[in-house]
Amino acid sequence: MKALVTGANKGIGFEIARQLGKRGYEILVGARDEIRGQKAVSDLTAEGITASFIKIDLNDFTTLHEAADRVGTLDLLVNNAGIPGNIATHRGQKDMFKSAFDYTTDDLRQTVEVNFFGTHELIKSLLSNLTEDAKILNVTIPISGNQYWQPLAYLTSKAAQNSMTMVFGNEFIKTGSKRQIFGVMPGAVATDLNGMPESDYVKSPVAAAALITSFLFDGKNHNAHIVNYTGVDVTNYEAELSQNK
């Protein structure tokens, strides 16, 4: 069994790779920084996990196409890599409460290009590598935000990604494929991308990874769904929006 985890050199991605490795998966550590990626490989190998580095830069499609030629067959693809977008304000470089009105068109374009177009290109590039019953898991967030937390660029990119997840999943159904693609919303997680500290309401990367991977092995078919951290399957935006009122 083989799994490619993007953004696996640190944070949630590394912990997802670690937990899958403990289940016996051969891990492909997808990362754009080879030094950090190889360090993650060394750390995983030290725990008895079979792992290797593969360069994945969602902003460089050449690396995605080259990866498709190198990875062989895949049983799992976990799309964890992404960027929060420009969240700098006068209050600091990682202001998760930046006003929606302060985002520029360039902020939106840069974030969508990485989180949506990059993830889309990677999935398309790897379709022929996927086993007959492979699973694709996209780490995502609710699309609506709330009045206190509304990182516009990030939300926009994930809304597009969530649409793609549902559409691709329905395409699997239409063609009679046994493959699944679904998203998981782990809730608030403390990472170096957002600068948020762990708390009663903000999960650690270890806890988030355990939650995310649990939906791969719960025996349920989540294809074309977005799964909330509570375990509720969201099958359309209207339902998701109503849950966040």
Automatic annotation (TrEMBL):
Belongs to the short-chain dehydrogenases/reductases (SDR) family. InterPro entries: NAD(P)-bd_dom_sf (IPR036291), SDR_fam (IPR002347). GO terms for molecular function: oxidoreductase activity. One of its GO terms (cellular component) is membrane. The keyword Acetylation does not apply. Keywords: NADP, Oxidoreductase. This is SDR family NAD(P)-dependent oxidoreductase. It comes from the Bacteria.
